[in-house]
Design goal:
With 393 residues, the protein is α/β, with parallel strands linked by helices. It has 15 helices and eleven strands. It starts with 8 loop residues before the first helix and ends with a helix. Bound molecules: pyridoxal-5'-phosphate.
Length: 393
């Protein structure tokens, strides 16, 4: 299907970026499992390298299966162009390293993915690219943390695992006044629930390992933005650092994306039901879910997201030992990090994803020893709840 903005999300998820007659009339996109491509003559090779003739050269630069995926995610995020990577972190690092130089500064939402936190430390130490963490929850909070070297505002919303949201339109307004690029990690929401580019943000990054792939069988990353910025990242950080995706993994994502809308609806509906149950259970102290009316950022959710998402954080009444006992009593729900899979997954941030953060800092961030994060899967919600209820009992 050629670009056609009249088609809705669900249709684009299945057709965008693929024209079967260009691929031997194959209904499903083929996997071009090749490292390199042949030229008919020296002249043709020279023209491909100079860009005078379009066409493939070598699979670190581009590959037809990967191209289909890149065009599909670009259309779903409503951006000009997409880029695929071998992991979410390859995507994040290509963007942050690609768009900054020594002495630049990155303003970052308080609470980012652990390895993004690690990357920020590394580029500070090695290249003196500084960063500041901020709640970004008021205009003053954003403005007071910008300096003349700030090149990027990097945002995760919802924030893991506290589930607070950031008002993207508010941040974009300030960033535009100051000429700063806004980059959003849209892993938790996917373009089905939230489209940062339509709100004025400049780039979206994804760990496609999560909801986009959706089946827990691939590690991959994606970037979407305007053609000029995407081409720049493609020709610099992606080409020369080389964190590209394999054709097979690209194919798995193309396959996963076909059902993205259907899956997201079910993830969200199941999460709504589980939240209702958790909120009335006497062993639960607090539930953090942006789709819940009592959530402090519920209004922001209404403005920038379609639904509340499939991730719930909650606190158990009791101490660390009690939390361990509950989690270890689960029978159906596996204990695992990652999220967005068909299987419901539970993890304990204090001892897993956020274990490296000193306890006092961690607790101030809202991550207590009793906090659990649930990635609600696609099982029957009553079965999911039955497992949680028996473990709480
Ligand atoms: C998992 C994750 C990443 C990193 O992605 P990988 O595919 O594991 O490299 C980045 N950001 C968020 C929000 C994530 O959940």
């Amino acid at each position: 299907m050629k670009r056609d903005n009249d088609y809705q999300f669900e249709t684009k998820a299945i057709h965008a970026g693929y024209v079967s007659k260009d691929h031997g009339d194959s209904l499903t996109p083929p996997i071009y499992q090749t490292s390199t491509f042949t030229f008919s003559s020296i002249e043709q090779g020279a023209n491909r390298f100079s860009g005078e003739e379009s066409g493939y050269i070598y699979s670190r630069l581009s590959n037809p299966t990967v191209t289909i995926l890149e065009e599909r995610i670009a259309q779903l995020e409503e951006g000009d162009a997409g880029l695929a990577f071998g992991s979410g972190m390859a995507a994040v690092s290509a963007v942050l390293i690609g768009l900054t130089k020594a002495n630049d500064h990155i303003l970052c939402s308080k609470g980012v993915y652990g390895c993004t936190f690690g990357l920020l430390q590394m580029i500070k130490e090695k290249y003196n690219i500084g960063h500041t963490f901020s709640s970004l929850n008021t205009r003053e909070e954003v403005l007071s943390n910008i300096n003349e070297n700030t090149k990027i505002i990097y945002i995760e919303t919802p924030i893991n695992p506290t589930m607070r949201l950031i008002d993207l339109k508010m941040v974009v307004k300030i960033a535009k006044e100051k000429g700063i690029k806004v980059v959003v990690d849209n892993t938790f929401s996917t373009p089905y629930l939230q489209k940062p580019l339509t709100l004025g943000c400049d780039l979206v990054v994804h760990s496609a390992t999560k909801y986009i792939g959706g089946h827990g069988d691939v590690v991959a990353g994606l970037v979407v933005g305007d053609s000029e910025t995407v081409r720049f990242i493609k020709k610099t950080a992606q080409k020369d650092i080389g964190g590209v995706i394999s054709p097979f993994d690209a194919w798995l994502l193309i396959r996963g994306i076909k059902t993205l809308a259907v899956r997201m609806d079910r993830h969200c509906d199941n999460a709504d039901k589980i939240v209702e149950k958790l909120k009335t259970h006497q062993k639960i102290k607090e539930v953090y879910f942006p789709g819940d009316k009592s959530h402090p950022d519920y209004e922001i959710m209404k403005n920038q997201m379609k639904k509340g998402g499939g991730l719930i954080s909650f606190e158990i009444k009791g101490d660390y030992e009690e939390t361990v006992r509950v989690v270890n009593s689960l029978k159906l729900i596996p204990i695992a990090v990652s999220l967005g899979d068909a299987e419901t997954l539970i993890q304990h941030p204090a001892s897993m994803t956020h274990a490296v953060i000193p306890e006092d800092v961690r607790v101030k961030m809202g991550i207590s020893n009793q906090l659990l994060r649930l990635s609600v899967g696609l099982e029957n919600w009553e079965d999911i709840w039955r497992d949680i209820e028996q473990a709480l009992g």
